Amino acid sequence: MTYSAFPKDFLWGGAIAANQAEGAYLEDGKGLSVVDLLPTGEKRRAIMKGSVPSLTPLEGEFYPSHEAIDFYHRYKEDIALFAEMGFKALRVSIAWARIFPTGEDETPNEAGLKFYDDLFDELLKNGIQPVVTLAHFDVPIHLVDKYGSWRHRKLVGLFETYAKTVLERYKNKVKYWMTFNEINMLLHLPFLGAGLAFEEGDNVEQIKYQAAHHQLVASALAVKACHEIIPDAMIGCMLAAGSFYPYTCNPADVYQGMEKDRESYFFIDVQSRGEYPGYAKRFFRDNGLNIVMDDGDAEILKAHTVDYIGFSYYSSRTTSTDPEVNKNQTSGNVFGSVANPYLDKSEWGWTIDPLGMRITANQLHDRYQKPLFVVENGFGAHDEVDSDGSIDDDYRIDYLKRHVAAMGEAIEDGVDIIGYTCWGPIDIVSASSGEMRKRYGYIYVDRDNEGHGTLERSKKKSFGWYKKVIETNGAELEG
Asked: Which residues form the active site (predicted)?
């Protein structure tokens, strides 16, 4: 596998999120955020969907985000390892509640601002560009309690204030920004994606799509602010991507695949094209949804579209209209899917489809004609530490090299891809399950699902593989 397609300034790197890596969940003035209420175990998924028993952590539950991998205190050690691999970029998120602990404080928390100053300085010192997500599954709990989170218009202005604050603060340090991580996750895990909690009798679809509108307007206002404050910066959106394949060539299956894709494309259509597509307007009509839009919203959306499309890709999905076929389901980055008989699966049931990466990249390029940025892609697996301390994760290398190769093919196809920040270059808490056992990293972190361990870092075999990929700018994928 050799590829000369990657541009010389291609942004090779990795991606983490504040809530899955930093820990220090109430340190230096930080407020509670939505992920701080997600325990491990069987209750986690129900809470992520909006069945929230308490807006404070409960006794007897283990909340993995509270300490995570302690990146807050260990970031210099971790960045040194990223630099050793040759990273050109590291995607991180800013914890909104670290800057505005309640979300509506009159002044920002200086200790929180200083942490990110120090983090970005350390990255830049090591030749690594920060790629910063403004909201990565992160809403201050005070705003959930007081306003019902993004269902309330008030959050648009509060988010704009937060965005302007950090854009102004870091304008000389950060040139790549994103607004909302996997914005389409709002429809599938509403509390995780948008801090939405529901009660008996709520019109859940109405609330979700009203919240979506508020996020879309807030995203456009953040784009406006970025273009005004940092004219040479790029700011993008972020999609949890992966095409839906029809299970058969039955036109009903094909149409359903298109509809499933549109559930996600809806968000990016608005952020990239600046207006609600016709199919969304029909969906609102057909389902009796009345999305309240303020005067001027349409103009804001139209005038402030994103510069690039960031997306995560882990697997493709498959859909069927046949009830018998639908009995055979598998998982994958939260999206349910019919099991695809042509694809293997990870131990967590996520299909492994490198060609799907190329298909998805081409579809996004054809649809939007904007630069793409692969900001998440990785392989979650249980890693065994050998007696000599080594970790031979050949399965991860195999997954990643085939996906990087597919990305190279997409670039050969003419798709403009500006970078690749694979997910979890260091082991972090899994967003979907709260586990540490589900590891993505090139760097092992000594911590288990119950929070035990030294947090010591060590290199896996894939560490050397990715270092070689970056050294050769993707020309050598075999290691």
From this structure: 376 (nucleophile)
112-131 pLDDT, tens digit per residue, is 999 999 999 999 999 999 99
Say whether pLDDT at 134 is over 80: yes
Q: What whole-number distance in Å separates Cα of residue 285 and Cα of residue 209?
A: 13
**How much is the pLDDT for 187?**
96
Q: Which CATH number fits domain 11-471: 1.20.140.10, 2.60.40.10, 3.20.20.80, 3.40.50.300?
A: 3.20.20.80
Q: Given pLDDT bands bounded at 50, 70 and 90, which one contains residue 268?
A: very high
Q: Is there a contact between 391 and 444 (Cβ–Cβ < 8 Å)? A: yes
Nearest to 214 by CA among 167, 175, 136, 156: 156
Q: Where are the domains of the chain?
A: 11-471
Catalytic amino acids?
376
E strands within 136-183? Answer: 176-180
CA–centroid distance for 148 within its chain: 23
Residue 434 Rama label (left phi>0; alpha psi -120 to 50; beta): left
pLDDT of residue 331: 67
Tokens of 105: 């404080």
User: Is residue 253 a contact partner of residue 321, using CB atoms and an 8 Å limit?
Assistant: yes
pLDDT at site 104 = 97
Backbone angles phi, psi at 273, to 5 degrees: -100, -20
Give the whole-angstrom CA distance, residue 368 versus residue 177.
18
**Chain mean pLDDT for the chain:** 95
Q: What is the pLDDT of residues 139-192, one digit of tens each?
A: 999 999 999 999 999 999 999 999 999 999 999 999 999 999 999 999 999 999
Give 231's strand partners: none
Residue pair 383/393 in contact (Cβ under 8 Å)? The answer is yes
What pLDDT, on the 0 to 100 scale, is given for residue 114? Answer: 98
The torsion angle over the Cα atoms of residues 207, 211, 213 and 218, rounded to 10 degrees, is 170
Helix %, strand %, coil % of the chain (to 5): 45, 15, 40
Contact criterion met (CB below 8 Å) for 159 and 135: yes
What is Dmax (Cα atoms) for the chain?
Answer: 65
With CA atoms as reference, report the closest residue to 275 among 246, 291, 295, 298: 298
Which residue in this structure is represented by tokens 């960031």?
Answer: 310
Give me the DSSP letters along 102-133.
Answer: SS--SS--HHHHHHHHHHHHHHHHTT-EEEEE
Pairwise CA distance, residues 478 & 469, whole Å: 8
Element (H, E) at 429: none
Unique residue bearing structure tokens 């119950």: 450
In which residue are the tokens 């609330």 written? 207
* DSSP 8-state assignment for residue 204: H
Only one residue has tokens 């709520």, namely: 202
